[in-house]
Amino acid sequence: MNFFREAQRHIPGGVNSPVRSFYAVGGTPLFIESAKGAIIRDIDGNEYIDYVGSWGPMILGHAHPKVVKALKEATAKSASFGAPTQMEVKLAKLMKQMAVGLEMVRFVNSGTEACMSAIRLARAYTKRNKIIKFEGCYHGHADSFLIKAGSGVSTLGIQNVPGVPQAVADDTLVARFNDLKDVETLFKSNKKKIAAVIVEPVAGNMGCIPPANGFLEGLRKLCDANGALLIFDEVMTGFRVASGGAVQLYGVIPDLMTFGKIIGGGLPVGAYGGREDVMKMIAPSGNVYQAGTLSGNPLAMTAGFVTLSELNTHPRIYQKLDEKGEILENGLREVFDKKRISVQINRVGSMMSLHFTKEPVTDFASAKRGDNTFFKKFFHSMLKAGIYLPPSPFEAFFISITHSNILLKETIGAIEKIF
Ligand code: PLP
Fold it and tell me: Do 125 and 353 touch, CB atoms closer than 8 A?
């Protein structure tokens, strides 16, 4: 408690990323001391079953022994060189092996940087300025993406982010998620002006919303017909919803993909990649400038390589993650049905969310219809019961391979006791 007060004196809002602040649910954020597997421990020694998973990357659970060992060894060799290392090439090769359509990859330091750089590249390639993004999707905090964005932007209810120049906002066109007609209309009214469509193939920043049948295929066709590039933001879905991410799961290959947290096993990292002819435009092979002192950082590369190697060599992990997701989903459905609570449970593998509403949630408008007052009560009751959920109705829950059936049943049991 006191620590949050202390934090607010030194850091705006007491946090370094807004959704952590419990703004949407009220109360005081937990300050974390450590985590192991699926259990997270706060500085007061309280333990919780963790469904935040550092907002997605902890697919193998916290502090996986192989990741910890490799990081210890890598740290002993120095944290950074500012020069190429073999590990960057090893991780790039592994990602290419796992993700279809990833012909070349460039590492950066965050998902924001990855998406921002992919947009710059798409603009350079097409010699056009406008982009289409989807209402409620989040692609990081670069200016172009803060128009009707999801995640913390919608959690805080910010309509127009001050500081984003009007000219940038004018170049960002916004369509409804899962609505191809809307995208078609934007293409028609902005002929030869649209450089790219960027989309979370499974939305995760307005809760979890899967793509409707044919939506991603339709985007592919519209981009091809209009000479625009298709960018999949796989920051949440890459190497989580399948070993080859959403591209593999839905069989639609974009021109460019962006990645983040997952490919660093929780360390700060990002990457963008895709078609070789497009990627070769990046400096120094081309003149689209993009750089980073800590890009390809050896610690981030090491944690990412060990994490992805584990996923790649044990593909059954994905089946197990899906089974765990199913156990949790079915258990929650049963309890909520029994208690006559209206809820939409959306799930893709180990990514899921709850929206307390009667109607299906397929886009931002329907996500916003959820009863957020109820969500707040639900969140705090769960926290009291030792379950740490994302502190916002617009964020997805993440399940790891370390969420045992016992922990999943404990979670379901907690809900049964609350209502
Ligand atoms: N894209 C998606 C889909 C995300 O979920 C996020 C962050 O949650 C980002 C981009 C931005 O990544 P970062 O927070 O690493 O900048």
Answer: no
- H or E stretch covering 337: helix 316-338
Ligand 1 atom with the shortest distance to the CA of 111:
12
Spacing, Cα 127 to ligand 1 middle (Å): 26
Q: Which two tokens stand for residue 269?
A: 């990292």
The predicted model scores a pTM of 0.97
Both tokens of 172, joined, read 């960002």
Residue range 199-247, pLDDT digits in tens: 999 999 999 999 999 999 999 999 999 999 999 999 999 999 999 999 9
* 3 state DSSP class of 71: helix
- Which residue in the block uniquely carries the two structure tokens 């960057």? 88
**Strand 39-42 to 47-50 pairing:** antiparallel
Concerning whether 338 is annotated as a catalytic residue, the answer is no
Residues in the chain: 419
pLDDT tens per residue, range 129-184: 999 999 999 999 999 998 877 777 777 877 778 888 889 889 999 999 999 999 99
- C-alpha–C-alpha distance, residues 269 and 271, integer Å: 7
CA–CA gap between residue 309 and residue 91 (Å, rounded):
9
CA distance 326 to 333: 10
Give the whole-angstrom CA distance, residue 58 versus residue 52.
9
Measured CA to CA, the distance from residue 40 to residue 109 in angstroms comes to 25
Backbone angles phi, psi at 112, to 5 degrees: -55, -50
Q: Residue 414 C-alpha to ligand 1 middle, in angstroms?
A: 30
Ligand 1 mutation target, pool 107, 109, 112, 257, most atoms within 8 A of CB: 112
Q: How far apart are CA 346 and CA 366, in angstroms?
A: 12
